[in-house]
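[job 0412] stage=fold_complex status=start
inputs:
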Amino acid sequence: MSDRPKFVEFREEGPREGFQIEKKVYPLADRVALVEALAETGLKYIQVASFVSPKHVPQMADSEQLFAAIRRRPGVHYAGLWLNEKGFERARRTPNVDLSAKLSLYASDAFAWKNNGCSAEEMRERQRRWMDLYAEAGLPIDNALVMAAFGCNYEGEIPPARVVELARWTDALCREYGQRLPRFFLADTMGWANPDSVRRLVGMVREALPEVRIGLHLHDTRGLGAANVLAALEMGVDLFDSSVAGLGGCPFASHGDATAAGNICTEDMVFLCHELGIETGIDLEALIECGRMAERIIGRKLSGHLIHSGSLAAYRRARPAKAAE
Amino acid sequence: MSDRPKFVEFREEGPREGFQIEKKVYPLADRVALVEALAETGLKYIQVASFVSPKHVPQMADSEQLFAAIRRRPGVHYAGLWLNEKGFERARRTPNVDLSAKLSLYASDAFAWKNNGCSAEEMRERQRRWMDLYAEAGLPIDNALVMAAFGCNYEGEIPPARVVELARWTDALCREYGQRLPRFFLADTMGWANPDSVRRLVGMVREALPEVRIGLHLHDTRGLGAANVLAALEMGVDLFDSSVAGLGGCPFASHGDATAAGNICTEDMVFLCHELGIETGIDLEALIECGRMAERIIGRKLSGHLIHSGSLAAYRRARPAKAAE
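[job 0412] stage=fold_complex status=done
writing structure:
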């Protein structure tokens, strides 16, 4: 328990990951309102939308308009996502996009083919091209993320040593370009992680790259999200991707059941941190209201808990604990 | 981690707690089928129904018929619940009810009034009468349970020392009757527990009563269920109440929102144990099918995760991990 961080950073993915996975296209005004409300909670990093093919992902066809419509709050990073050079160019041309340079890797070859149409090896080699593009744009590397780091529905268990090797490779690549890798995200894309595998992999990556900050991108697909976050906190992890109201998820995570849970839920995990005495800089009550807004926009029950139960703050205010007993 | 149990027992509460909280009365045949399916999974303790006022709880008006209709599986304990002598007498007269003597206590006076119409002190004193009744019936005490052990929506934080005092009192009562208290359940009735408070309270009760087995009755009201179970496992707790598909919950747990999550979900927590290498004696795949049956019966999306995502077994069978890497 002594390794627990004092402060944890949550990077909000709901507006992008949540609305991208939906079949329906939601009104621009609703998504703008959600992003603006999230920015008022103390969240410092919000992934707003992706710059991907409007033919394949019509939900994100209006990303330029979405970013343009946002009234910015100072100190908040409004991130976009791109998967190819065309997308990156769109992001560069779009007002209000805070560009951050990200490298993407696959721990599963089978999933790389499924999700990206190339081998994991090919994807890795493509990162050199991204290093060049980011260097040309004057963007230092913000982070690298390895997908399916814990397991893969198409390949089974992922040996942790493979992820460590990818981490070393990425760190070496950054050094070739005169940079250091600041953050390395382990993504449990398809919901395979458990508290033991989280501890093991975080421990191994940290041992290999002690100066790199480790982040976790976890999904709550099989209900272990909160337990995995707890295990990570106790390993000192202080950086998580998450989604308001538990939006999002991976279309390949479950047995084709669209009702499977998505990303770990930001407000529920902020609550976990606060209950453990860990600060987040986030106004939990305001964030719960954002989760309720997300549920109203989506129009069906979402998997977050606090949006339905409320936090404990109101009960504590109303009836403080008796001190002497 | 070294304190982790090798084997964990889950006591299934879904058939009683799940259907009792619903507004609707569900067909007897559906509930019989669910109980019988649960008994085939390896679960050894199933709370089938309660013997309470049919006027106040019409959902449980047919408890006699439900028990009578069950085809029993040897080795399974089919439990009933009663709150007063009349209910106990009904249970005694009903075929297939495996009577087990249980004591009930409140850590919150305000909640005792709300839920039971008497003070916590009065409720405690009533346990003497139950000791007499159980002694007359030749039933040794199976367990005692303390409600609102971690916190209360009507009273706020519950000082752990109060719960320890109740545990000592109950143990002393059992000794008066020449018995030992075998199991003491800490119930997080309204979803206040967090991993730290679980560790603290379990540690304090164990220190006070080292020979009593500690059980946890947890709700997932605020999304910390899996994290709380993990913390408990690492304290050596090997006994949990839970509900298939996450049925159940406390009508007083949330801000009056009926969609708040219920009890911790049996199959999700069995999955957690199995992933951590802890045995449960339960066939997870069969249990997931029970959860899906529960969801079909209830007729809306339930909060369990594995019923929507599936477990990892099929993926592992299809593509075993490469051994050498």
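[job 0412] summary: The CA atoms of residues 212 and 310 of chain A lie 36 Å apart.
[job 0412] exit 0
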